[in-house]
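Lab notebook, design round three. We kept the backbone fixed and only want residue identities now. Task for the bench partner: fill in a sequence for the structure below.
Input structure tokens:
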């Protein structure tokens, strides 16, 4: 069995065929799904799907791109739901910053404040974090080491930076997705063998980051099977062993 620990099934691109998407996934032995919370506006759809399908769970949080709209009070009605398994995706993303120096500093400050609030909220609730990191490894590492609770979480998007591997000792897991199959993924391929097997998870980030050979198409949970194949190749482990390890890790972290 495979658990897709990060798939945006609440995205409008699935509204017309969500049942078919889930059926294809199940035919490929992808049997559980976690929808990360990236935008408050999509949370009602995530809850709707989690209530309709036993094998779908969701998280509550705000992506750094939407930090300006973060309001914890708006998230409170969702976080107590029995299918809410994490806080996030939250984090830092410096990839698209303003050009002016003052605006850059203001944006970084805002993202850090929103990230820290969600880290502390997860610690307060005893829930794991789903963390998005892009071009902000050192700042993210500093905040997680300073504020994160013992439940840890998963680094969903993290640029494959080696310095983040130390978070494995802080109960953080590493989500492996379609990027591992990209021809230009040299950095991740180099770092991947250094991730302890007991800290590996599988994800798609669907509908984004579709793995080879389907790049350019809409991503979907079935394609975790391609990620598992590549992980098996690089780990020199049987495909079934990759599925067993990552499923046990997902169950341990999220309690699903």
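Proposed sequence:
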């Amino acid at each position: 069995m495979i658990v897709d620990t990060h798939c945006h099934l609440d995205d409008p691109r699935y509204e017309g065929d969500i049942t078919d998407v889930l059926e294809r996934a199940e035919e490929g032995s992808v049997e559980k799904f976690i929808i990360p919370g990236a935008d408050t506006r999509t949370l009602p759809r995530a809850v709707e799907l989690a209530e309709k399908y036993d094998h779908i769970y969701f998280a509550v949080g705000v992506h750094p791109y939407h930090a300006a709209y973060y309001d914890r009070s708006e998230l409170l009605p969702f976080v107590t739901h029995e299918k809410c398994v994490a806080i996030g995706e939250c984090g830092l993303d410096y990839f698209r910053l303003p050009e002016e120096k003052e605006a850059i500093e203001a944006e970084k400050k805002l993202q850090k404040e929103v990230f820290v609030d969600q880290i502390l909220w997860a610690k307060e609730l005893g829930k794991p974090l789903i963390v998005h990191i892009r071009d902000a490894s050192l700042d993210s590492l500093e905040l997680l080491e300073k504020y994160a609770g013992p439940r840890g979480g998963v680094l969903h998007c993290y640029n494959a930076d080696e310095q983040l591997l130390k978070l494995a000792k802080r109960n953080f897991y590493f989500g492996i997705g379609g990027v591992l199959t990209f021809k230009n993924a040299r950095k991740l391929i180099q770092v991947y063998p250094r991730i302890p097997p007991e800290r590996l998870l599988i994800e798609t980030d669907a509908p984004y980051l579709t793995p080879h050979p389907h790049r350019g198409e809409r991503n979907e949970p079935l394609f975790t099977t391609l990620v598992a194949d590549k992980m098996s190749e690089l780990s020199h482990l049987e495909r079934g062993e990759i599925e067993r390890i990552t499923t046990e890790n997902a169950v341990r972290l999220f309690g699903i």
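Keep this in mind before ordering anything: Helices lie at 18-27, 43-52, 72-79, 101-125, 137-147, 186-191, 224-235, 239-254.
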